[in-house]
């Protein structure tokens, strides 16, 4: 399963609509779907540098990779992590120019000719929003694997860049856009900072990883 840390808020355009004609930054309490499964509470520290994340003004991203089991109505978390903005920027610098350009073109193709997206928080249903791939609209119930990604500020989830599901088809397409240099860098991150349990090690370690 690929590692997809989606930090492309400058590429995708969102606006949260609280009242008609009123746009503002909007945050909500951290949903349990973005808690650490290992500790059953919000992530407290950056996976890379150990920085405390729950102070107001601290920006970070949480990513969780979810896997289903054929023939069973059951999902498990293959891996999970939180990474602060500073560490992400350092990791991004290691990505090849070729990979960055390819990914930028991929996102540009997705948003081409599409107006800004609006979310009315008066009627917003998080579970419904996270029931399908953000890019393709495919239902997660039909996927073998998918990833959950969201941006946070301290102890709040930032809705101006809403949480999203990235489906297996999109993950595979993004993996094909990466250069060998970038794949090596992402695998290095995986080997150093992600330590899956033995029963899922082959699932996580057997494929290239992506950080954007």
Please give the structural blueprint.
Blueprint: E1 4-5, E2 14-19, E3 22-23, E4 27-29, E5 59-68, E6 75-84, H1 85-93, H2 97-111, E7 117-120, H3 126-129, E8 145-153, E9 156-158, E10 164-167, H4 168-175, H5 180-193, H6 201-205, E11 210-211
Total helix count? 6
Radius of gyration: 17 Å
| Major β-sheet profile | 6 strands, antiparallel
Whole-number total of structural domains? 1
Describe the protein's architecture and organization.
There is one protein chain. With 212 residues, the protein is of the alpha+beta class. The chain has one domain (4-211). The protein is 26% helix and 26% strand. It has helices at 85-93, 97-111, 126-129, 168-175, 180-193, 201-205; strands at 4-5, 14-19, 22-23, 27-29, 59-68, 75-84, 117-120, 145-153, 156-158, 164-167, 210-211. The strands form 3 sheets. Strands 4, 5, 6, 8, 9 and 10 form a 6-stranded antiparallel β-sheet that branches. Strand 2 (14-19) and strand 3 form a beta hairpin. The longest helix is centred in the middle third of the chain and has 15 residues, at 97-111. The chain is globular and about 45 Å long. Residues 4-21 and 197-212 have low confidence and may be disordered.
């Amino acid at each position: 399963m690929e590692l997809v840390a989606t930090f492309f808020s400058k590429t995708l355009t969102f606006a949260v609509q609280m009242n008609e004609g009123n746009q503002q930054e909007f945050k909500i309490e951290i949903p349990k779907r973005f808690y650490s499964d290992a500790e059953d509470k919000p992530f407290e520290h950056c996976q890379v540098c150990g920085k405390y994340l729950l102070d107001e003004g601290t920006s970070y991203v949480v990513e969780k990779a979810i896997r289903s089991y054929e023939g069973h109505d059951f999902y498990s978390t293959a891996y999970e992590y939180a990474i602060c903005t500073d560490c992400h920027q350092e990791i991004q610098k290691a990505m090849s120019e070729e990979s960055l350009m390819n990914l930028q073109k991929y996102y540009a193709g997705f948003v081409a000719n599409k107006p800004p997206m609006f979310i009315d928080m008066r009627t917003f249903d998080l579970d419904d929003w996270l029931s399908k791939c953000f890019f393709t609209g495919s239902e997660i119930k039909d996927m073998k694997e998918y990833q959950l990604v969201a941006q946070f500020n301290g102890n709040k989830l930032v809705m101006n860049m809403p949480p999203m599901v990235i489906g297996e088809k999109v993950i595979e397409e993004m993996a094909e856009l990466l250069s060998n240099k970038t794949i090596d860098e992402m695998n290095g991150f995986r080997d150093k900072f992600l330590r899956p349990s033995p029963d899922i090690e082959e699932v996580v370690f057997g494929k290239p990883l992506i950080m954007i």
